[in-house]
């Protein structure tokens, strides 16, 4: 007879994968590092195989580990779905959520997947726009929640600090030799643009604002074409591009603070549950880009 999986073991296993380390995973599941390590060893003993390849710098899944990950996520999602079906079967309604496109693609996808599993009868409308455009929409009650960069107009509840990094077509992209340095920037007024320019000015680097766009894809297109370098949140850097830094003579950039802000008319259970899901999932996740991408 096959041994039964302990859900706590699967939860710790997924936490290690998502966090990229035993130490960070332990904090996320509110256990000691030793306890999490013991849980993984117990799971490996049950399965008779190794789930992780470990060295001093990296933690990666073995082939059996990758196979287990898919089933573990499904098992945990099914458990949450069953709990929700019994405890909160009556939750229905609609939530309008606003967020920049880079936050939606890089951070919100797993949140929305889990929320849809827990509350399948809640409709979510997503409005993709920059934080500067979402602020007046929130004030006018055109959206219920906003997952945005904190500024004077968008305070909200703090979720996480997201690093900003320089991005180029490659670590030795020819555009780095240009003087003044051609830089692609987000639209005037946004905090990401302000932090980027402050870093350049503080380092006394000669630059020119070669391109400006409110769209992540618009800025990325200028990098793909080899026409500029840009500054992005680390989580939203496409895998095909290179992260640049000290080795290329580029200065550090202050991180962005991400918040969940709410409209005056968002005081209802559906909005509460989605805001809680974002806080729960994203405040625990480790900022950063996935392994296996170029870094300068």
From TrEMBL:
It holds the Pfam family LysR_substrate. The keyword DNA-binding applies. Residues 5-62 form the HTH lysR-type domain. Belongs to the LysR transcriptional regulatory family. This is LysR family transcriptional regulator. It comes from the Bacteria. InterPro entries: LTTR, LysR_HTH_N, LysR_subst-bd, WH-like_DNA-bd_sf, WH_DNA-bd_sf. GO terms for molecular function: DNA binding; DNA-binding transcription factor activity. Coiled coil: none annotated. Keywords: DNA-binding, Transcription, Transcription regulation.
